[in-house]
Structure formats: C-alpha cells, structure tokens
Amino acid sequence: MVEFFQAFVSKFLGQPPLLLGTLVFIGYMLLGKKVHDALAGFIKAYVGFKILQVGTGGLVQTFKPIITSLTDRFGIQAFVIDPYFGQTSATEVLDSVSSLQYVGYVMLIAFAWNILLVAFRKQTKIRTLFITGHIMYQQSAVLLWAMFWVIQGAGATVSTPVIIVTGFLMGTYWSVMSNLIIEATQEVTDGAGFTIGHQQMFGSWLAYKIAGKIGNKEKDVNHVNIPGFFSILNDNVVANTLIMTVFVGAIMLILGKDAFDYNTSKYVFGTYIFETTAKFAVYITIILTGVRMFVAELTASFEGISGKLLKGSVPAVDCAVTFGFSPNAPTYGFIFGFFGQLIAIGILIAMKSPVLIIAGFICLFFDNGTLAVFANKAGGRRAAAIIPFFAGMIQVFGSAIVLGVLKGDPNVIGWMGMFDWATLFMGTTLLTKALGIAVPVVLALLLLIIPQLQYKRHAKTYFTTMRDN
Questions:
Q1: What are the tens digits of pLDDT across the range 189-214?
Q2: Are 158 and 97 in contact (CB under 8 A)?
Q3: Strands of the sheet with 414-415, listed across from one edge
Q4: Tens-digit pLDDT profile for residues 212-221
Q5: For residues 11 and 432, what is the distance between their CA atoms, to the nearest angstrom?
Q6: How far apart are the two ends of the chain, measured CA to CA in Å?
Q7: Which residues contact 150 (CB under 8 A, 6 or more apart)?
Q8: What's the CA gap between 378 and 6, in Å, rounded?
Q9: Three-class SS state of 283
Q10: 369, 330 in Cβ contact below 8 A?
C-alpha cells in the first residue's frame, strides 16, 4: 500500500497536468455536473496545460541563445520583465528539480485560505474572493520559485514547509490586496460591484491615493485625443512583436550576425532577426491559448463552489475590466510607463549593471495601463502620466534587484515585472534570503492587520456597501 501511494503521488499527482485536471474533475462533480461534463473539463485542463508547456519551452529555446551570447561577449545577463517570461522561468526551474507539480498545491492552499478568510469575514474583515485563474497559477509558480531559490537553493526538490508557507502568503496577498482596492475600484467603475484581482492591486491603491495630490481629476485623460496609430498597440500579437523587435532586435544587432548560427542561404541577418523576435509573440500566443483552456475550466469549478459557499462575497477579477471605464488611460499608461522604463534601462547600462532589463508588452500595457486608470480617476491626466512614468522606473529597478538574487539558474529568462512584484515581492524575496523562512510567515500575519484598519475607518458601511463614503 505504501508503494502504491508513493507511486500515485509521484506518477499521478506529481504530474501538473493530471493534478490540475483532477482538481477540475472533482470541482465539477461537487457542483453536481454530469460525469461526461466533468471528464470534458478534465481533458480541456490537461490539454491546456500541455499547450502551456509547449509555449514556455519555446520561449526558453528562443531567448536562451541570445542571453548566452550576450553573457559571453559582455558579461551581462539580459532578462525580460513580463509575466509570461517570469512564469516560464518559474516552471522551468521547478521542473528541473522535479517540483513543478507543487505549483498546483500552492494554488490550492492559497485559494482554500482565501475562501476560509472570506467565510469568517466578520472576524477577518476580508470580503473578496480572488478568481482570476491564470493570475492565480502564474503568481503561485513565480512565488514558489522565488521562495524555493532563496530558502533552499538549487539541487533538491521543494520542501513541504516552503510549499505550505508560500501557499499561505499567496492566499493572504490575494485576500488582503483585493480587499484593499475595493473602494477605489468602485469609484473607478461607478459601483460595478467587483474588485481587482491581478498583479498591481497594491500599486493601483497607491496610485489612487496619491493621484489627487499631484493632479486634478477634473482634467480627465479621456478628454484628450490620442493619435490613431497608437491603436495598433491594442493588439497583443502586434505589440509583442514590435516591442521584442525593438529591444531584442537591438541586442542581436549589437552582437552581430557571427554570434548566431542560422541558414545564410535562406535569410539575410535582418529577416533572421525579425523571425526570431516574432517567435516571442508566437510562443506567448501559444501560452495564452493553453492558459485560457485550463484556467477556464479551473475557474468555473472553483467559482461555482465558492459561489455556493460564500454568497455575498466580492469577486476579484482581471484588471482589464476597468479599461472600458477610462478608454484613453491605458494608452497613456503605456506611453509614459515606456518612457520611465527606457530611462531606467539606460541608467542600468550607464552604471554597467550585470543585469540588463528588457521591457515586456504585458507589463508596459496592462500594469501601467491599470495604474493610469486609477490615477486618472483621482488626479486626471497629469497623474495618469506621472504615476506610470515613475512606476516604469520602479518596475525596472525592482526587477533588476530581485533578478540579481534569482539569476543563478540557467533556466531564468525573466521576472514578473509588474508593480507589486517589483516592490512587495522583490522586498519579500530579498528579506527571505537574508533572514529565512520566518519572513513570509511574519509578512502574512502583518498583511492581515490591513483589513482590520480598513474596517475601523468604515465600520458602519463596511459590509453593506463597497462605496467609500
């Protein structure tokens, strides 16, 4: 029986696609779905995760030779600050130590902890349930990688204490930060009844709070005409290709054609550069396809269960849902965030930093775009320009600092780069490296004080309205 159990854990639950598919199957069965519907959910989750693995493997294969050439030539390592490059780093590092399956465990612990905190909301003051599935998986993977690397280091599978602590910290972050941003989100969306569950919840709250001090909300960004050519950036494929061509293409030009092994009878160096940089958009599209497949099933099974158990809770959803309430703000955030990142990258180069940061589209657009939406609501177009500009600099410097600690594994090609991950989780990673596993435990406990302070400020209306009165 012991041998059977060990084989079941390692060969079935130890396989991430099977684990996530099984969770979906169980969730659907608990919701009263028919067996064939639950089976269909299992298959979609399994295939979706397999597609994700194809995309992450492709990103590594495309970017790794460029990093190697850059390191060999100049002693510099380049990393992309983009969620999917960070996720790819996490999954490849964890897979190399036979621990990728534990991402599912972290995600399950975090979600269960979030549910428990909401179930006891009269005591915890937590009102929000984080249901942005692809973000849940992404963040669980990246945080587990970071905690594993600074607590254990290379050479062993992830330990049980690291899995548990990571899960509780992740769930606490989801719960507390999505709860923190409720009132601001209600103002931005005119009381739409949801909150943000994404990568910049703390950043959005901060942007909303300081925007009024640096701008005038009457001078709204949506009253400004933005040149039509910027509309092409609304397409992920186009924007990813353009940005990677500019940044990675420049690096390839500096390295020169002799640094790459390609078919000279088929390509001139310029077309080879474009084909290489366009692959980033190809593999990110593959990743997104896989993520959407397994997350759609995972979210449906989780959300259904939580809906039955936690009626009246506030859903925390993707940041992109706020874009429709301030259509010009995301483009403002992208433009000024790009300038901020560009200046910060230039400073790193001037300082001869051993870490070179490459901008990523998702960080530039979705992160800075969201900050601009919240900044515009409280401080108008001035705030929507200034805050993303400085956020762009913070994203670069914070990511460079944390990558200085995490870059030891050859599978690392990037970091999350989003605001909360260049600030809160950058600091958490560095402190954990210095002081050990007690740091995430203490941080989780300290975070739980925040909703108690919120409640004291709005005690009379805290559970009856989400509007900040």
A1: 888 778 899 999 999 999 999 999 99
A2: yes
A3: 355-359, 77-81, 414-415
A4: 999 888 888 8
A5: 32
A6: 60
A7: 405, 406, 429, 430, 432, 433
A8: 56
A9: helix
A10: yes
